[in-house]
Amino acid sequence: MKKGIIFDMDGTLWDSAENVAKSWCLALEQCGYGQCQVTKEDMYRVMGKTMDKIAEILFPFCQGEERNHLLQVCCEVENTYLREHGGELYPRLRETMEVLKDKYHLYIVSNCQAGYIEAFLDYFNFHDLFEDIECFGNNDKPKGENIRLITERNGLDAAVYVGDIQGDYEATKSAGLPFIHARYGFGTIDTEVPYIDALEELPKVAEEVLGE
Fold first, then answer.
1. Residue 39 dihedral angles phi and psi, to the nearest 5°
2. What is the pairing mode between strands 195-196 and 158-163?
3. Which residues are 162's β-sheet partners?
4. Which of 159, 28, 24 is nearest to 79 (CA)?
């Protein structure tokens, strides 16, 4: 039986909010909006939303094609910046993933822009850990559909999604999979679900959810 663990990014594998905010400030200045600033706290406020919704919240001062262009520049600058500067990994990520790979196939699904997951994998040299990735920026599909897509594309007989916010849980439910809450991340879940308080707890909890 082929079993998989599918991971959210922000609040689950790393915290990139500070460097994402720095990169977006650079992009705003580049586009002539130097008086506008984006903070780490702003990023925490919108983490987990699709990129179009993030632009709507953070760029109320422009609309339409102007907003779309600004978002495109922000995403491009962000991907380049993160490839050079990275973000803050949660402790023992590589060690935990190497343990998990002995039993499970590992994947990433995020609501991010195209290139964001790749920047994460490039900076930390993690390409050997994850077999497949998918995101909103690649296909404009919501997270639930992309979770289902990864499951079907990789021929998984059983899988679980690991995420940190309510939206992750709801997307996982829509995909018909079980969910593990990364409680150390950015959000809470409104129902009782299996959880971890650190990544290194995941092998035990994944076994309880997916079986031997």
1. -110, 165
2. unpaired
3. 7, 180
4. 24
> Among all chains, which residue has been given the structure tokens 């109320």?
60
Helix runs in 89-135, H state only: 93-100, 116-124
For 66, phi and psi rounded to 5 degrees?
-65, -45
Q: Are 5 and 106 in contact (CB under 8 A)?
A: yes
Sign of CA dihedral 200, 162, 21, 124: positive
Write the DSSP symbol of residue 130: -
- Structure letter (DSSP) for residue 201: G
Q: Taking the chain, what is the end-to-end CA distance rounded to the nearest angstrom? A: 10
CB 78 within 8 A of CB 116: yes
Helix (H) / strand (E) element for 45: namely helix 40-46
What's the pLDDT tens digit per position in 90-138?
Answer: 999 999 999 999 999 999 999 999 999 999 999 999 999 999 999 999 9
The pTM assigned to this predicted structure is 0.94
- Cβ contact 169:191 at 8 Å: yes
The secondary structure element, H or E, covering residue 17 is helix 17-30
Measured CA to CA, the distance from residue 206 to residue 195 in angstroms comes to 10
Q: Report which of 37, 19, 25 is spatially closest to residue 74, judged by C-alpha positions.
A: 25
pLDDT tens-digit series, residues 143-199: 999 999 999 999 999 999 999 999 999 999 999 999 999 999 999 999 999 999 999
Distance CA 94, CA 185 (A): 18
